Amino acid sequence: MELSRMSPQVTVSPQIAVTDMAAIRAAGHRAIICNRPDGEGADQPSFQEIEAAAKAEGIEARYVPVQSGMVTDSDVTAFGEAIASMQRPVLAYCRSGMRSATLWSLNEAKTRPLPEILAMAKEAGYDMNGVARRVANGGKTPTDNADVHYKLVIVGAGAGGIAVAASLKAREPGLEIAIIDPADIHYYQPGWTMVGAGIFEPQDTAKTMGSVIPKGVKWIKGAVAAFEPQNNAVILDGCRVVTYDRLVVCPGLKLDWGRVEGLVETLGRNGVTSNYRYDLAPYTWQLVQQMRGGTALFTQPPMPIKCAGAPQKAMYLSADHWHRSGRLKDIDIHFCNAGGVLFGVKDYVPALMEYVEKYDATLDFFHNLVAVDGPGKIATFEVKEPEQEPRRIEMAFDMLHVCPPQTAPDFIRVSPLADQAGWVDVDQATLRHKSFDNIWALGDVMNAPNAKTAAAARKQAPTVAENLVADIAGRSAVAQYDGYGSCPLTVERGKIVLAEFGYGGVVKPSFPSFLIDGTKPSRAAWFLKEKLLPPIYWQAMLKGREWMAKPDRLEFVPE
């Protein structure tokens, strides 16, 4: 148990256990405040269990839960009221102690000067500079006096954010736009599969952020902490406030590496790799070249994930190298998929199955990776087959390629913009928010039922641009997104199964079948992936040139 004394009356700590209660009492604490919502972690005791153990020791307990990443003004008020009404000294806890320390700092803002609060928090081991502006404002979020205002604000400078900014500038050169993103580098993520197969060089998939932001667009280099759509405000880390007339939200999604026990500690060594990270894709290729025999596991977590075909692309290209070098017969390949099908659009499955059989790969469906012992070379899977009791199995490996679990970013999940699953809630045709009519979203973060791919963002950006320009002009939406997504499945070096589809898995080919038949492996599709798509991304999509991406006219009035 790690206790950090914020003041004589309040101590904070990370998650406590039922067995800690006697020690908490011995340390002099007379009350406990739980700031962690029940069910946040699998190994977390419930508040009811903590309360019962506290009562047995004569300690009062109060439940004041706060969502991770979002300490609201009402949370601070509730915390202050609890402190005032309970016996002291009080111990407040959450997962790491940070939420409790933040609540204390903001509550103390009514009576202590900012430098004193920052110093006391620092002495206790917590850096409160990120909420200094709120502390200076008496503990309240100061959205009424913005640091800066823009006609249009875009959150996220990935593929979707840069593309929609460029498409808007192409239509309305004088439109005042700011784009918010803390990253220094912009990545062409679809290229990482090719890096992991030794085809692309890593540096060819990266450019400085400043070089890709469209001319005339203001770059606010910062991270979003929260949204207040009722005030047309975005709050950044450090409590800077940016207000807007209209907002586009496209920060991508979160790769939740930490959800697989032991994974973070072993990534990039012990034969554990992933093409989902720029720095790890070269390690994939290193492992593929070095492997002479043994077991290679390729994993896919539950949907949704970005580029649903990427986990098996890594398998096919690795197996192709082993086949060409005469090693395949000595390597046991497993594709461990948390889902129950190889690919979600059935038209492309027969061609893929031919390669599964060619490479003698075992398809382990309903296998979800939950833990990795890197030094021991053991992967643990939770197996949830239909009409059977869940079970856990262990599989030894020599090489493990991991696709991490993926969610919406924390600041999206806890925001008023999110649906119950945590994704930005939009109309799937117009991509306008269902509750806030001056907000749009695109890319991986929104909840339209399409594949999360760069090709999807390429089609979504013009749709958002058209509808936003129409809104500025006082007109209704004019364009609709049909769910288009593309997944070039690299089944071997030199051949691709080009999957293209829209909402409902409807096949939507971009080329005539005599040129590229997407249901069959094609050298023309490989040429498209290797030679054409990178310059199309950098020089067309990110420049507002909408080659083969013109938005469809809206055929109906959305509900």
From TrEMBL:
InterPro entries: BLH_phosphatase-like, FAD/NAD-bd_sf, FAD/NAD-binding_dom, Prot-tyrosine_phosphatase-like, Sulphide_quinone_reductase. Residues 5-110 form the Beta-lactamase hydrolase-like protein phosphatase-like domain. Residues 150-254 form the FAD/NAD(P)-binding domain. CDD domains: PTP-bact. Gene3D superfamilies: FAD/NAD(P)-binding domain, Protein tyrosine phosphatase superfamily. This is Bifunctional protein tyrosine phosphatase family protein/NAD(P)/FAD-dependent oxidoreductase. It comes from Paracoccus albicereus. The lineage of its organism: Bacteria, Pseudomonadati, Pseudomonadota, Alphaproteobacteria, Rhodobacterales.
